Amino acid sequence: MSLKVLSALDVARIQLYHFKAIIIAGMGLFTDAYDLFCIPPIIKLIGRIYYVEEKQYRTTPTVVVSALVAIALLGTVVGQLVFGRLGDRIGRRSVYGLSLGIMVLSSIACGFSICRTRNCVLVSLGFFRFLLGVGIGGDYPLSATIMSEFANKKTRGAFIAAVFSMQGFGILVSSVVTMVVCKIFEATSHVSNGQIPEQVDIAWRLILMVGAIPAAMTYYWRMMMPETARYTALVEQNVLQAAMDMEKVLDIPMSQIAEDSLLPSYPPPSYPLLSKRFFRRHGYDLFSCAASWFLVDVVFYSSNLFQSQTYHRFIKDQPDVNAYELAFRVARFQAILAICSTIPGYWVTVYFIDRIGRVKIQMIGFFFMAMVYFAIGIPYKYFWSEKIGIGFITLYALTFFFCNFGPNTTTFIVPAELFPARFRSTCHGISGAVGKVGAIIGTVGFLWASRIPNNNGKPDPVRMTVALVFLGVVCLVGLAVTYFFTRETMGRSLEDNENDDE
């Protein structure tokens, strides 16, 4: 027997509140991408400030860059596990504002970073980025679950993908903010080539703090969102309250969603999380979601760090280029990549996700990513290591396009559709946490691939070849996991997908 309020949600027409929910839920993902992609140009500024020896600048060591990325990812693992579980235990809405609050405060704190000596700045920046990661991690399962439980079954995938696509705009905005800040400071500081003015130390802090503004602007609306009908009806067993909440935000008359009887139609199963019965019913799906997310994040975060080895051929990182201009060039490169590759990948997924399905898109993405990595990696030692040009950049951009028109988006969507309401947020958090472990492995792997330079000061071509081919193999493993283990969820209600019957 189906509850009327849930059936009404499954067939509800697209309304203004759906788009409002996309913006509200997507701001956490926006902040995630902003803080990840503002780091490369900031690292250039920090290198010019804190890695100067005998008036000769040095770039920030790769080990420091990887550590700053990894510490935020470690916080994300913690946030996904903790907030994912809290979302199922005390409600999505109850902890939704808390995760956003942590993101806002830690973004601001990253900008202050207490002191101005190198070791102190890096330690404090790492600590606050860990807290930022906790808030971002908490936002992943909550945003995906809330959007999936509000959406209708016909366009649910597109709505969740649209939430996730806010990452693309976060990348673009972080680049634009960096370029604007750098140009303003450069114009007002009257610097000459090679100089390192004290205002540079203010510029990178300001860039970090600006990222908190969009998230803070949505805090009020997050707190005003009602609890999802599925959590209220299926977990709290308050069907009447679920109907009342949905009447307030969606254009659905109470007569269509009120039950004839107030007795719940979906008594919750008695088995606990991670019990034998849980694994018998949901272990297959949990493995599929976690393994796919793990594999794509190994590739995705390695690719992001690989940008530093790509754009240094184009930005002309030389001593006579001032710090502002150097950071501007890095941000400009990222903005072009986002406009031409990353953002289109997200929105092609939004268009096709409810037409061809999650499984096919995930398989398409993994397959073409593998082919591109082989095309880059196999000839890297003999061709790309010395001749990086437009052909290499085009192939490199395609990895981001097919990552987003593929597993980077679908791994965010599928865990929010497969599991019962009382485990949904937790299982999404577990899947995402396993994925971020893969991301940490990716950052460490990239450190291995790029740490030892050759005589020209460039990454060792043999190591880079091995690393890039390995990423292609990882994508093929992801393709196999998707084909053999991932269930299609397109066009089905969440209750049909959850596979929670005997």
Automatic annotation (TrEMBL):
Transmembrane segments: 21-43, 63-83, 95-114, 126-146, 158-182, 202-221, 286-306, 326-352, 364-382, 388-406, 427-450, 462-485
Membrane topology recorded in Swiss-Prot or TrEMBL: Multi-pass membrane protein
Transmembrane found in the keyword field: yes
GO cellular component terms, A-Z: membrane
Coiled coil residues, start to end: none
GO process terms (BP): phosphate ion transport
Residues annotated as domain Major facilitator superfamily (MFS) profile: 21-490
Keywords: Membrane, Phosphate transport, Symport, Transmembrane, Transmembrane helix, Transport
Compartment(s) where it occurs, according to its Swiss-Prot or TrEMBL record: Membrane
Leader sequence residues: none
One of the record's GO molecular function terms: symporter activity
Superkingdom in the source lineage: Eukaryota
The family this protein is said to belong to: Belongs to the major facilitator superfamily. Phosphate:H(+) symporter (TC 2.A.1.9) family.
Protein name (record): Probable inorganic phosphate transporter 1-9
UniProt source species: Durio zibethinus
